[in-house]
Amino acid sequence: MKSYNEFCKEQAERLFEIIETHQGLLQWQKSWQVKGNNSLPKGVGGFYQGINLWKLLTEQTTCGLGSSIWLTYNQIKQKGGQVLKGAKGKQVCFFKLREIETENANGDNDARMVPLFRLYTVFNLDQANMAGQEVEATTPAPKPLQQLITFLKVTVSEFGNQPQFQPVEDVIVMPRRECFVTPSDFDVTLLHELVHWTGHQSRLNRETIRDYGKSDAIRAEEELIAEIGSVFLASYFGVAGDLINHASYVSSWKKLLDEKAIGRAMSQASRAFAWLVNQLEDQAVVAAA
Predict the structure, then answer these.
(1) Is this prediction's pTM over 0.90?
(2) I need a labelling partner for 52 at 20 to 30 A (CA). Which of 5, 157, 186, 272 fits?
(3) CA–CA separation, 33 vs 8, rounded Å?
(4) What residues form DSSP beta bridges with 157?
(5) Could you say which DSSP state residue 35 is in?
(6) How far apart are CA 1 and CA 93, in angstroms?
(7) What is the tens place of the pLDDT at every residue in 176-231?
(8) Which residues, at least 6 apart from 219, have a Cβ–Cβ distance to it below 8 Å?
């Protein structure tokens, strides 16, 4: 059976294959209109989470699959469908740390965390005779980016030529819009910085933001989190643009990060994406009440 590290290694290899082919993740995202479904992967409970969001997104776009819905074989059967002959499913993982108690030499109970990891197989709806049908519990349509910025009261200052998130001041600094080649380039750069913003101690309290300046490896991991997160958000909001000043980070990812760190970055990017989208959708529910 495949281990969690082996699963992460496969995704790391896919990441670098995409970067080498397209010179960046957002350049890859811009090509999606001709390579399969460009919506984020969903199951019956909403968006997939963690490294699975990345894994299934790459499967959709590289395999030319026409749906963003992924279900297990039994879920398809429960809905009255059937997986098409010859269709091969894709493996996704379930991973969590579980606390267990063991008795030590003194007869006392010691608590320790043990990993719980298993793989299971899902099929794209395009691989079943249900292709084109709606599946319950899909997510609402994306809301405008500015609505999210306004609702979360994100402080964005426009000056200079270097986009950055400043944790001490809790502010995103962006060059003025006219400095960008297109409005979409401004938007995806803002999305990148917004992922950094989620890591602030008052929000997700991400270690790679807290310790950003301590080492090149920590900085590289946080930048990878922001780039992957901005791909998820760009897909959600329907934005296709290029980042400013991202090229210098690409080579550092391969040099400084092992597959476990890359898997961790994919999971943290998914967490940041989910946190942002949930804030917006919770606000929409309150507004409609």
Answers:
(1) no
(2) 186
(3) 27
(4) 173
(5) S
(6) 12
(7) 988 888 888 899 999 999 999 999 999 999 999 999 999 999 999 999 999 999 99
(8) 208, 212, 213, 252
